[in-house]
Amino acid sequence: MCFAFGLEIEIGNGVELNLQRILKDGGNENLSQKTIFKLEVAANRYDLLCLEGFTQAIKAYLGIEPIPRLSIKNQAGGAIHRITVKPETFEVRPYVVAAVLRNIEFTEQSYNSFIYLQDKLHQNICRRRTLGSMGTHDADKVVFPVTYEARTPKDIVFKALKQTQELNAEELFEALKKD
């Protein structure tokens, strides 16, 4: 089925599939003893980089569910959220795009999957964050209008998701390098 869908698949355990990095960083699961399905995803199919997108695509391909139709809508009632972009950011990141997603409730598993997908997108289309970067924030805690500006890392102070204390960007980068 995967081949008919246009995907290459390998089946084996972590050692057979040469997944040493994952085996080393894989936490408390022993992947060398588990059956692993390794899929090669085409560069233009970012929807297949997470389990949820992959399952949705396969179900649509098999006719089990319809192809999802997504739409972009303006904010219902009230003012449009605004982002003010300062001129100095053009040298660092010339474009900014934002979206407010509503009625999303994360479980620990869905949150981890979402962050994993975001990281894959950072590594791929954002070219290791050199072309772009994504942030995920709780919209209930964001005060609009937002200002998008360039600052030195030591002058950027915030509390990142799943962090317990505020750090400047230099400190956060050092903390996350260990994670």
Entry keywords:
Phenylalanyl-tRNA Synthetase, Chain B, domain 1; alpha+beta; 5 helices; two-stranded antiparallel ribbon; two-stranded parallel ribbon; single chain
* CATH C-level name of the domain at 2-61: Alpha Beta
Oligomer state of the chains in this structure: single chain
End-to-end Cα distance = 37 Å
CATH level 3 topology of the domain at 2-61: Phenylalanyl-tRNA Synthetase, Chain B, domain 1
Which range best describes the helical content: under 10%, 10-25%, 25-40%, 40-55%, 55-70% or over 70%? Answer: 25-40%
Low-confidence stretches: none
Strand content: 5-15%
Account of the protein in words:
The protein has 179 residues and is α+β, with helices and mostly antiparallel strands. It has a domain at 2-61: Phenylalanyl-tRNA Synthetase, Chain B, domain 1 (2-Layer Sandwich). The protein contains five helices and six strands, in the order αβαβαβαβββα. It has helices at 2-5, 20-25, 51-61, 108-123, 169-178; strands at residues 8-12, 36-40, 83-85, 146-148, 157-158, 167-168. A two-stranded antiparallel sheet has the order 1-2. It has a two-stranded parallel sheet with strand order 3-4. A two-stranded antiparallel sheet has the order 5-6. The chain is globular and about 50 Å long. The mean pLDDT is 82.
